[in-house]
Structure formats: structure tokens, C-alpha cells
Amino acid sequence: MHENLTDLHLLHELEPVVEKYLNRHLSMCKDWNPHDYIPWKEGKNYYALGGQDWDPEQSQLSEVATVAMVQNLLTEDNLPSYHREIAMNLGMDGAWGQWVNRWTAEENRHGIALRDYLVVTRACDPVQLEQLRLEQVTRGFSPGQNQQGDLFAESLFDSVIYVTFQELATRVSHRNTGKACNEEIADQLLARVSADENLHMIFYRDVSEAGFEIAPDQAMHSLHRVLRNFKMPGYTVPEFRRKAVIIAVGGVYDPRIHLDDVVMPVLKKWRIFEREDFTGEAARMRDDLGKLVEELEEASQKFEESKQRRLEREARKAEKLTAKRVLASTP
Questions:
Q1: Are residues 180 and 252 in contact, defined by beta-carbon separation less than 8 angstroms?
Q2: Angle at which helices 94-120 and 63-77 pack, to 10 degrees?
Q3: Which positions make up the binding site?
Q4: DSSP result, 195-215
Q5: Beta carbons of 266 and 164 less than 8 angstroms apart
Q6: Residue 127, SS3?
Q7: How far apart are the first and last CA of the chain?
Q8: pLDDT of the chain, 331 residues: tens digit per residue
């Protein structure tokens, strides 16, 4: 068992594990084609080619589904930044490099498919969508930032542990967005994307688990840093907070989902609260993660209460509006 290994040593130590899990991934993944999930017959030209430009009345998706799908797409659009960050931290040699390139290729088709679906079905304004893409990619992204936007030290463990949680969160978000769309093709497409994200999560999760065996204290430092400062990559999207509220109230991704479906499954898989090989500061950090779980539980309960009050207010408003319409239509 080693501690305080440099990233170079960690890369070397984990190389056989990465090769093993890369081969497993290639045996498990199912190739698919974005064009197979796009209802092309619904497509028609826009004004530049003699057709009609987008009109809000053309969208068939609910506000929650539209906001969530666009948010998911804009998150996928930042792939150049993700590739750069991962390539810089994991390297481009050997099995590590093969994984980085394979992961990038698979992630790229997610953005292709989501954009084609939204544009062909006219689910949102394509001009605004392109403007948002340009702004999002220009802003870039780095997982090595805390809630105040300050950079914290990055390492190999920071990268693979962060992406473990991020991939799982993305899988959950895509799957719940598909259900929120209430449209068969969108649901099938996002289920396919979600399946990709799940396999990516499994790769990073199991590589991270091997890292905990090699250098538990070092890995714990990174885990603590990642969870205490965790932000989804979509936080750089313009008006992120407003959109996050819509997505949360709509049940696509909220504090309860984050805790129960993302944070806890990974911590349980790594046996974080059962292990006895953390020492010194790392042991203290493990205890602090127990406090973090309690804080997330409290935040989840507060959100659920706030959400219930909001839904009740909206229901009362809807009832009053209906009553006014009935009165207005009465002779």
C-alpha cells in the first residue's frame, strides 16, 4: 500500500486496472447511431431555405422537459473542455489515452443526437440554442472549482472521482428528462444516452475504487475535496440557477435525487464509512463526509417542503384562474 504518490506514479500503478476496465467497457457497450433516434419526417426547412422559422407554438414538450433537455445538451456541448481537462490529468499514453479518446467519441454523439432532435422537432428556438452553445463553449469548464469559483488543487484522483459522480448525475438527469418529455422517441433517445453515461460511470467508479486500495488517504483527500465543492458541469450555462429550480421542481434532478441516487450509491460501493484504512487527516475527512451527508439530508427535506408549498400555491392560482374563466363565460 502506498501513500502520497505522484500523479505519474498513480498513472503507472493504475494502468493495468484501466486496461482491464477499458476492455470490459468495449465488451459491454452497444454502438448506436444518433440518426436512428431522430424523427426526420417531422423536419422542415427554416426561413433561410424558404421555410418557416421557429415559433413557440411549435414546441410539443413541457417547460420542464424543454429546459432539462436544453440544459443537458448545453452540458454535452462543453465536451472540448472536458476532453482537455481529462486528457491533461489522465494523459494520452497507453490504456489511459485509449480510454480518453473512446470516452470522448461516445460523449460526442450525445450532443449530436440531442441537438438534431430539438431542431428537427422544433422543441426550442434554434437561434437561441446556437447562441447559448457559443457562449457555453467559450466559457469552458473546469471541475477544479469550488462554490466560490476559486480553483482548488487538481490531481488524478480529483479527476476520476469527480467524473464518477458527474457521470452518474448525468445518467440520472438524462433518464428523468426522457420520462418528463412524455414522448416516445425522446424517451428512447435519452434512455440510450443514459445507458452510455452509466457505463462511463462504472469505469470511473471502479478505477477510483482501485485507487482507494493503492492510496486510501490520498484518495480520501480528493473525495472530500470533490464532494465538498461539487458542481454539475452545466453550472456555467447562462441562467443556470433559474433553470436548476425548474428542473428540480419538475422532478428531473433535485437535492433528494442527488443524495439518494448519486452520492450515497457511490459512497456505499466504495465502503467509505466501513473502511478502517484511513489515517490522520484522511480519517477526519471521512468523518466530515458523514456530516456532509447529514447536511444534504437536511437540504433535501427543506427542498421537499419548499417544493410542496410552491406546488400548492400554483394549484390555488390555477383554481382561481379556472373560476374566473368560468365566471367570464357565464351569460
A1: yes
A2: 140
A3: 76, 107, 110, 167, 197, 200
A4: HHHHHHHHHHHHHHHHHHHH-
A5: yes
A6: helix
A7: 84
A8: 445 678 888 889 999 999 999 999 999 999 999 999 999 999 999 999 999 999 999 999 999 999 999 999 999 998 988 888 888 888 888 999 999 999 999 999 999 999 999 999 999 999 999 999 999 999 887 765 444 443 344 688 999 999 999 999 999 999 999 999 999 999 999 999 999 999 999 999 999 999 999 999 999 999 999 999 998 877 888 888 899 999 999 999 999 999 999 999 999 999 999 999 999 999 999 999 999 999 999 999 999 998 888 777 777 776 776 666 666 676 6
C-alpha grid cell, residue 146: 469550488
Q: Rounded to whole angstroms, how far apart are CA atoms 328 and 265? A: 53
Is the Cβ–Cβ distance between 184 and 108 less than 8 Å? Answer: no
Burial of 274 (0-12, 13-18, 19+ CB in 10 A): exposed
Domains of the chain: 7-297 (1.10.620.20)
Which residues are documented as binding site for Fe cation? 76, 107, 110, 167, 197, 200
Per the document, the length of the chain is 331
pTM for the predicted model, two decimal places: 0.89
Q: Which residues contact 263 (CB under 8 A, 6 or more apart)?
A: 165, 227, 293, 296
Residue 151: helix, strand or coil by DSSP? Answer: strand
